[in-house]
Design a protein that fits this description.
The chain is an alpha+beta fold. Helices cover 48% and strands 17% of the residues. The structure holds zinc ion (ZN).
């Protein structure tokens, strides 16, 4: 199944554009280019891997938006831990996502 990318993603002060990029290496499933507001994804990832990569890159974008002070290696560990944890949280608890969506609608109604 093929679906379109979640483009753009609104985080912080800007809309981040989400694109496939053939320049990503095998070890690099995605990349966040903060000064251009880009989230780049390696083609060919299956659904769960692509979701994890998008979350991972969104976390990098969040860290950029909040003036990250971590060293690159530390940021990678924090982002990877949170991305995997968020995937598991939502996969194993779909009712939680529905609850969050319904509660957040109260803010726009
Ligand atoms: Zn990373």
């Amino acid at each position: 199944m093929s679906t379109s990318l979640p483009d753009p993603i609104h985080l912080g002060y800007r809309a981040w554009r989400v694109r496939y990029d053939d320049g990503c290496t095998d070890e690099e499933y995605g990349e966040t280019v903060a000064n251009k507001g880009l989230i780049l994804l390696q083609r060919g990832q299956d659904g769960p891997a692509e979701v994890d990569t998008v979350r991972h890159e969104c976390l990098h974008a969040m860290m950029h938006n909040t003036g990250n002070v971590l060293k690159h290696k530390d940021e990678e560990q924090v982002v990877t831990l949170l991305a995997h944890g968020l995937v598991e949280l939502i996969q194993r608890n779909p009712h939680l996502l529905r609850w969050i969506e319904s509660r957040l609608k109260e803010d726009t109604e």
